[in-house]
């Protein structure tokens, strides 16, 4: 019997993003990388924390995404924090530009994953949460957990 194989393999995730931001919309984008960066990402040596998207001259770039230098890459390694171009259609970039022109909205990467052998980025248009919003979210999560626990005990 053949195994069913998923096409997507998550390589890095920005877990803090959902805690710190309200996610309005998500979009999948390709990313322009060099060979040693792809090898390093496949080894899981990338970090999305504190990275964000920036639109310059009709192109979108991801900034502050750290990809550690590949061990066997020697002279072919690039700067770990360099700006990397994202591959999107012009209309998608214009849509994202419309969101970010509004006060408080930003573009953040949620995850890096492989899709059909290519590295993709899941981008989100997000609005920052205030401290009281974060507290409310944690309280709601705790209340939901308590309800689930009581339901489980009730039906034992």
UniProtKB/TrEMBL annotation:
Family, per entry: Belongs to the SmpB family.
GO cellular component: cytosol
Functional summary from the UniProt entry: Required for rescue of stalled ribosomes mediated by trans-translation. Binds to transfer-messenger RNA (tmRNA), required for stable association of tmRNA with ribosomes. tmRNA and SmpB together mimic tRNA shape, replacing the anticodon stem-loop with SmpB. tmRNA is encoded by the ssrA gene; the 2 termini fold to resemble tRNA(Ala) and it encodes a 'tag peptide', a short internal open reading frame. During trans-translation Ala-aminoacylated tmRNA acts like a tRNA, entering the A-site of stalled ribosomes, displacing the stalled mRNA.
InterPro entries with a match to the protein in the record: SmpB, SsrA-bd_prot, SsrA-bd_prot_CS
CDD domains tied to this protein: SmpB
Keywords from the named record: Cytoplasm, RNA-binding
Keyword Membrane assigned: no
Pfam families: SmpB (PF01668)
Species the sequence originates in: Clostridium luticellarii
Source species taxonomy: Bacteria, Bacillati, Bacillota, Clostridia, Eubacteriales
Protein's name according to its UniProt entry: SsrA-binding protein
Biological process, per Gene Ontology: trans-translation; trans-translation-dependent protein tagging
SUPFAM superfamilies linked: Small protein B (SmpB) (SSF74982)
